[in-house]
Design a protein that fits this description.
- It is a single chain.
- The protein is α/β, with parallel strands linked by helices.
- Helix content is about 40%, strand content about 15%.
- The strands form two sheets. Strands 1-8-7-2-5-3-4 form a seven-stranded mixed beta sheet, with helices on both faces. Strands 6-9 form a two-stranded parallel sheet.
- Strand 3, helix 4 and strand 4 form a beta-alpha-beta unit.
- The protein is globular, with a radius of gyration of 18 Å.
- The N and C termini lie far apart (about 65 Å).
Length: about 240
Amino acid sequence: MFYYVLKYVLLGPLLRVLFRPRIEGLENIPEEGAAIVAGNHLSFSDHFLMPAILKRRITFLAKAEYFTGPGIKGRLTAFFFRSAGQIPVDRSGKDAGQAAIREGLGVLGKDELLGIYPEGTRSHDGRLYKGKVGVAVMAITARVPVIPCAMVGTFEIQPPGQVVPKIKRVTIRFGEPLDFSRYAGMENQKAAIRAVTDEIMYAILGLSDQEYVDEYAAKVKAAEQEVAPPKRFRGLRR
């Protein structure tokens, strides 16, 4: 219930007025039935802007940290994401990927829209990174179409680390549904799920016109942090 209050009364109208999103390809979202909407992830604002413009409800797999933060801010964040119907997923441990797939298949099994960011995390520099194969496993297993989506301009309004977004117009593009029925029964074959994932990422790239990096975003970010110069602290002179 609160999902629709947010969408139509509290948050949705405000986002439309502030960011005046240009919507392209909305007709590619099916009016009914299960489907995956797979998009690039440039900003925290992505979580709100896409659901605000869709006619149907969409459920995202959200990282568990959004539900476990400390203090008042953590409790408010957890309340918001739970009220919006988002599903927490623990991304730590070897079974994290399987847990996310199970949750996603549960959403699709109810003929609903599932939103997912195949990169697995926000882009820290605005580039598009290699996709993780969970989206392919779900698409093949559930036998549902994948609609590629590109958020354009959200990195500029709220890059990582910026709390309050800039007020600037953004664009949301949806591509034609991708059909992977030819891969039926191949959800356990590494070559097949890699091929499906790469096709999805290529479609997102065509919509977003980002620079593509054929490595995982989390790995690149970790490597850059390792080589970053240490922070200098001012101490007392002896």
